[in-house]
Design a protein that fits this description.
- By secondary structure, this protein is of the alpha+beta class.
- The protein has one domain.
- Helix content is 33%, strand content 27%.
- The protein is built from 12 helices and 17 strands.
- The strands form 4 sheets. Strands 1, 3, 4, 9, 12, 13, 14, 15 and 16 form a 9-stranded antiparallel beta sheet that branches.
- Strand 5 and strand 6 form a beta hairpin.
- Helix 10 packs antiparallel against helix 11.
- The termini are far apart.
């Protein structure tokens, strides 16, 4: 049963958790394609456990957060619950809900919101009061924020989600590009001495422009998941109860608002289209549990309508900011970069003197 008041005040419960089983739309034995990472071995993020099983990351914490946060945008299933702040940069409009570093993003620093955001982070550092952040950008508290390039203020995620595939085999695939015309036989296009060199040289400009046959062998072929595909969601009630306002009523409203947003984002069904070759759907019903400080688990239900009403009521108490369009200050950004370069040059010169 949904009871936000108990969860924001009592220390007995430490988390709400969900383990949701997923399955490829093609069926359980279908091959799916995880994300590739530049520095990961073989590019997929696959770990080998002590028992020999291999586990692959299908969608990381950051990626899951980036899928949940836009649900609060205009036209999304959770619109109207958070401020819609749109930043115009030379005609290109970007929502704050799409900014990777949220309120700590470089996109915000050089706007009319920049000083307000800085003051909110400084208040958090000095007093622990997160109310100002909640009023401007509440999802920064829901999904976490780190003002790494300015004040250094950091807030952990309240909701964490990750999708993994258990007991997997990595596959490869090969392909062959065949040009529409055998350009090597076109009289006068290439020098006779070059023709033998060009065929099979996949790194040549001729190959890259599509004039010769190019084989692609041993590429990423996806993975076959022999175990389960799971989406693990944790709503951290301990981290939530560390948020505070200026007084008890404000603290209560702040925690209730952020918890409501976290629960709504976590329970909302995703479209499951993670990337090309990876379309997943739920495999059976998903069940939420409350985990107590002693480790005991109890099933619970999340009433979306009731939680949404709590979010709207808390939003009013907190006086959350209205929607607003703002503009990016190009000159301020240029000055910031210039100042940073001058600072680095001074440090380098000082180091060279030693």
């Amino acid at each position: 049963m949904t009871n936000l008041t108990d969860w924001i005040t009592k220390n007995d419960d430490v988390a709400l958790v969900l383990r949701q089983k997923l399955v490829p739309v093609e069926g359980r034995d279908a091959v799916i394609f995880p994300p590739t990472y530049a520095d990961a071995r073989e590019n997929y993020n696959i770990d080998t456990l002590s028992d020999g099983r291999k586990v692959v990351t299908i969608d990381s914490e950051g990626s899951q957060a980036n899928r949940m946060e836009p649900m609060f945008k205009k036209g999304g299933p959770l619109e109207g619950l958070v401020p819609q702040i749109d930043i115009d940069i030379k005609g290109q409009v970007v929502s704050l809900l799409d900014a990777g570093h949220r309120l700590g993003d470089a996109l915000i620093r050089n706007t009319p919101l920049g000083k307000e955001a800085r003051t909110a982070f400084e208040t958090l550092l000095k007093t622990g009061d997160a109310t100002a952040i909640a009023r401007i950008a509440p999802t920064s508290l829901v999904f976490g924020v780190w003002d790494s390039r300015d004040t250094g203020a950091k807030v952990p995620r309240i909701v964490r989600s990750v999708v993994r595939g258990w007991d997997v085999d990595r596959l490869t695939r090969s392909a062959q590009y065949n040009p529409a015309v055998n350009y090597l036989e076109v009289d006068g296009l290439f020098e006779e001495d070059d023709k033998k060199k060009l065929e099979g040289d996949t790194k040549s400009a001729t190959a890259q422009l599509g004039y010769v046959h190019v084989p692609a062998v041993g590429g990423h072929g996806g993975v076959l998941v022999r175990g389960e595909i799971t989406r693990d969601v944790t709503v951290n009630l301990v981290a939530l109860r560390r948020l505070k306002g200026t007084d008890e009523p404000t603290t209560s409203a702040l925690r209730k608002y952020i918890l409501a947003l976290a629960l709504l984002a976590a329970r909302e069904e995703h479209d499951g289209f993670y990337r090309q070759g990876c379309l997943l759907v739920p495999d059976g019903e998903a069940h939420w549990e409350v985990v107590s400080r002693t480790g005991q688990r109890a099933p619970t239900t999340l009433d979306k309508d009731a939680i949404k009403k709590d979010a709207e009521a808390a939003k009013t108490v907190l006086k959350v900011s209205a929607d607003r369009p703002i503009s990016f200050d190009l000159e301020a950004a240029k000055a910031e970069v210039k100042g940073k370069n001058e600072e680095k040059a001074k440090k380098a010169a000082k180091k060279a003197k030693k």
